[in-house]
Design brief:
elongated; disordered N terminus; 283 residues; single chain; mainly alpha
């Protein structure tokens, strides 16, 4: 396959390039993990006073709808609540998260910034804001939000994961690995942290260590398809093309495999030239 000068924006693969969706799974898994607790229903003790009114049952319905994955309907439900209770931080958080998952990042940012004004110590608001900024290719701003969140709650897994992703996007891999290791010290069995740590290692030239971690994770049948994608990429970065092909062959057709291999070679060449590729892989 002949390749033009390497200008691919990996965040837009689904739109710009004819590569298989499986190639997006490592990226999707990474960014989805940033907000694993973003839709947690607040307890009565933690819910702000403005969320304790008659709209609380509507709020629970909206949150349950969002959790089910129907973000279009959830957004409408949250909009109704915000219209009645414009200072409901939980409703604003849910609305911002739903907008973000619908791809409406500017609307999400506006709503979440308002929630942050109302409650500047709300860790979930800061974490979802971080995810929104990552999706807008604003890794520095995302990192600032995650750092604020972690000053409030050092154990928040959404903020820990997001900080690592933001640092890897900026090709600050040693710092990202410190973030993941900090998270793993608290959540040693967490798949997302281990997966992201392994990818960060690979991008900093430590493919052997990365492969060992991913080979262990791939034995989990639930997460195996996602890990296989990542493992294939790391094999490619390490120059182990036969292993990469064999791994991809479990999910892809031959033509798709060769398209993926072309990307791996380009990334490997850039790494060999000392170029930073974090923004290509994570953005």
């Amino acid at each position: 396959m002949s390749m033009p000068p390497f200008k691919y924006d990996f965040s837009q693969l689904e739109i710009k390039l004819p590569f298989p969706k499986s190639l997006l799974r490592p990226l999707g898994a990474l960014l989805l993990a940033v907000s694993v607790s973003a839709c947690t229903v607040p307890t009565e003790q933690s819910r702000p006073a403005s969320d304790a009114g008659p709209a609380s049952s509507s709020l629970r319905l909206a949150q349950a709808t969002a959790k089910s994955g129907d973000h279009q309907t959830a957004a409408r439900l949250f909009e109704n609540i915000v219209e009645e209770e414009p200072e409901s931080v939980s409703a604003l958080l849910g609305l911002g998260d739903s907008y973000s998952r619908l791809g409406q990042q500017n609307r999400a940012a506006a709503v979440l910034n308002r929630a942050h004004e109302l409650d500047n110590r709300n860790v979930e608001v800061l974490s979802v804001l971080g995810r929104v900024h990552l999706s807008q290719h604003q890794a520095e701003t995302a990192l600032a939000n995650y750092n604020k969140a972690l000053k409030i709650d050092r154990s928040n897994i959404s903020a820990i994961t997001g900080k690592g992703v933001a640092l890897d996007t900026l090709s600050r891999h040693a710092e990202a690995q410190e973030a993941y290791q900090s998270g793993l010290s608290q959540y040693p069995a967490n798949y997302v942290l281990r997966n992201n740590y392994a990818l960060s290692l690979a991008l900093s030239g430590q493919q052997t260590k990365s492969i060992a971690i991913l080979q262990e994770l791939v034995r989990d049948p639930v997460v195996a398809p996602h890990v296989r994608d990542n493992l294939a990429m790391v094999y490619g970065l390490a120059g182990r093309e036969n292993d990469a092909r064999a791994t991809l062959a479990l999910d892809l057709e031959a033509s798709q495999i060769e398209e993926n291999m072309g990307i791996y070679r380009a990334l490997r060449r850039m790494l060999g030239e000392g170029k930073k590729i974090g923004a290509l892989v994570y953005a």
